[in-house]
Write a structure and sequence with these properties.
Blueprint lengths: L1 E9 L3 H8 L12 E6 L4 E8 L2 E13 L3 E6 L5 E11 L2 E10 L4 H8 L2 H20 L17
Antiparallel strand pairs: 1-7, 2-3, 3-4, 4-5, 5-6, 6-7
């Protein structure tokens, strides 16, 4: 499994950054390969992306969410992946977003891409586009501020 860890500082208050991140259906506006995201309820998402020339579709579940702190998710169908985005207040107008993504490359092409660092570059580019998107927008679009507790491990 490939693990990518990236962070970026965004010139916007933590509430605006967090709220925009939770507007999952807006992800195609700043994530290069994402074509569509449909949120079917508070914790379930359907994704469609064009990856290495192929259309991929999967579902994911938000497994943990705490306003202005973190959003974690895991795939429930399609390629195996999981991730967490955490939000850190630097000051009143600056927020650090830290992203960790674990993805299981499937197929020869994705394994070669992983070895060449393609996923690292894509995540870094997506975070830069997110920063530009939120800074240009200026105000948050009103994200869902509900809380989802992580499942208890036995």
């Amino acid at each position: 499994m490939a693990t990518v860890e990236e962070s970026i500082e965004v010139n916007a208050p933590i509430r605006a950054v967090y709220d925009q991140w939770t507007q999952f259906e807006k992800f195609p506006q700043f994530m290069e390969h994402i074509e569509a995201v449909v949120q079917t309820d508070e914790t379930h998402l359907q994704w469609k992306a064009k990856i290495l020339g192929r259309t991929e579709e999967w579902t994911a579940e938000v497994t943990e969410q705490h306003p202005d702190e973190r959003v974690a998710w895991a795939s429930t169908s399609g390629a195996k992946h999981a991730g967490v985005a955490t939000f850190h207040r630097i000051d009143d107008t600056t927020t650090k977003v830290m992203l960790q993504l674990d993805a299981e490359p499937h197929g020869v092409i994705e394994k070669v891409g992983d070895a060449l660092g393609v996923l690292d570059r894509e995540v870094k580019g997506d975070l830069k586009r997110f920063k530009a998107y939120i800074e240009k927008q200026g105000a948050d679009a009103g994200g869902w501020r509900g809380d989802v507790s992580a499942p208890h491990q036995n």
